[in-house]
From TrEMBL:
This is Peptide ABC transporter substrate-binding protein. It is found in: Cell envelope. The lineage of its organism: Bacteria, Bacillati, Actinomycetota, Actinomycetes, Micrococcales. Residues 1-28 form the signal peptide. The keyword Transport applies. Belongs to the bacterial solute-binding protein 5 family. The keyword Secreted does not apply. Residues 89-467 form the Solute-binding protein family domain. It comes from the Bacteria. Transmembrane segments: none annotated. It holds the Pfam family SBP_bac_5.
Amino acid sequence: MATASFRRRGLSVVGTAAALALVLAACAETEDPNADDGTGGDAGGGITVGTTDVIISLDPAGSYDNGSLTVMLQVYPFLMNNPYGSPDVEPDIAVSAEFTAPTEYTVVLKPDLTFANGHALTASDVKFTFDRQVAINDPQGPAALLYNLESTEVVDETTVVFHLLSENDQVFPQILASAVAPIVDEEVFSATEVTPSADIAEAEAFAGQYTISDYVENEVIRYTAFDGYAGVLPPAVTDEITVQYFAEETSLKLAVQEGDVDVAFRSMSPTDIGDLRSDDSVTVHDGPGGEIRYIVFNFNTQPYGATTAEPDPAKALAVRQAVAHVIDRNALSEEIYQGTYTPLYSYVPEGLTGANTALQGLYGDGSGGPDVDAATAALADAGVTTPVPLNLQYSPDHYGASSDEEYAMIEAQLEATGLFDVQLNSTLWDAYSAERTQDLYPAYQLGWFPDYSDADTYLSPFFLTENFLGNHYENQEVNDLILAQATTVDETERTALIEQVQDLVAADLSTVPYLQGAQVAVAATDITGVSDTLDASFKFRYGALGR
C-alpha cells in the first residue's frame, strides 16, 4: 500500500469546521499489485494527479499563486523547509541557517550540490535568486515578501549572508521556505526578466524531489524523481507522477469516480464533495485549512476613489463600510459552501496567535450578521447618493465553480438593500491575475493561501505600503506596526502589535474578509496514510506519494 504526506504550509491550529476534504477514490487493482505498468513507477506504476488549478509561471519571480507554487514545491530546492507535519522550518539544502548578528542571517549550503542538468548549485545561485526577485519585482510575483532584505552577500562557494534592514526578524527563516525562495539556476534564468516556463522545463533547472520530463502548460506535467535531491524531505516515493489539468470541476469529479486519477485537488464544489461522501466507492477525509476569501477595494478606482471623477476619501470609506455592514457571512458559509468555509471577521484567521474579530465589533449587527440600517447611516452621514454604482469583479475558475454562486449571492445581498447598483463581472484567472494589478477592477475577489505558519503572512503582503495587492492603500502607522511585529522577540508584545494592526486595518477597510476555509484534494484507496498526515498543508507535496 502507498503512503501520502503533505508538506505543511500555514496554520498550526485551525477550527475543525474549516475542513480540508480529501476524497479517497476506489482504484482497481491489477492481478499483480507489484507489477510495473511501464510508466516508471513501482508497485502498480506511476501516479496520476488531477487538478483544475492554473499555472501562471514556473519562474518563482513571475507568479504568486497556488497552482504555480504547487509545481515549484516539487522541483526546486529551498534554503529552509517544513518537514512533513511540522509548522517549524529547518535547513533544507543547507547544513545551517542562523542569525550571526542582529541584522545578518547566515546560511551554509551542503557541499557538492547540483541541479538536475549538471550545473553546480552554489552560494552564487542563492544570491542570484534573491537579487533577481528584487530586481524584477513582477506585479504577479512574491517580491513583496522580501521587504526586510537589504542585500545578499556571497562569502564563499557554500556560504551566503542575508543583510536585513531591521534586527531580529522573527519571520525571515519562514520566508526562506516560502514562494519567494525557490533557488534557481543562474545559468538558465534571466537576471532581469521572467523566464518562460517552457525554457525552464527544457533546461531541467531543478534540484527538488522531482524534475520535469514533460511539460505542456495547463495540460499535463510529467515528473520524474531526482536522485540528486539533497534536502530535508525524504526521497520521492514514486519514480514518476503525471499531473493532468482539467478545465471543469465536473470532469475532475468524473475522473475520480472512474479511477482515471489517483489524486485530485483544487477544486471540487461542495456539492461534488457531498456526492462523493455518499458514494460507497470513495472515502472522504477531513482536515484543517487556512484559506481566506475577501473583497479588495482599489483606492484609486473604487466609488469616490482618488482617480475617479469625484474623489472623496470620506465617501469612499463609507462605501467600503456599507459593504462590510451588509455582507452576510453565515449565508455564504452555509448556503454556498455547506459549512466547509466558516465566517471570518478579521484579517488573521482563527487559530493563529494574534487573530481577533475586529470586523465583528465594527460592522453589521455586532454578532456577525448584516445590518442594513448601519449601512444606510454610514452612507447618509458621508453624503453618499444611493444607489451606489459598484463594479465588482471575480474569477469563475481559480477559486472553484462555486465562485459564480458566491458572487451572485454577494451581489444579491448588496442590491437587496437598495443601497447599491452592482455591475458583476467575471474574468478567467490567466487574465484576471494581471488585470487586477492594472487598476481595472474597482472591487474584486481574491483568496489567500498562507506562505508560512505565522500571522505575518496575512498582514505584510496586503497592508505594507508596497504590497502584493497594489490597491494604493497606504497607512504609515499600519506599515510601521507590521515591520515592528516582525522583529519583536517578546511573544506577548508581538501578539499585541498583530492585534493592533488588525484593528487599524478594520477601520480603514482596504479589504473585506468574509470566509475562512479549505482546499479540496482527492486520493485513490491505494494511496494510504492520508488521514495520518493531514494538517494545515497548503504546500501539497507529490514527493511523498507512492503506490
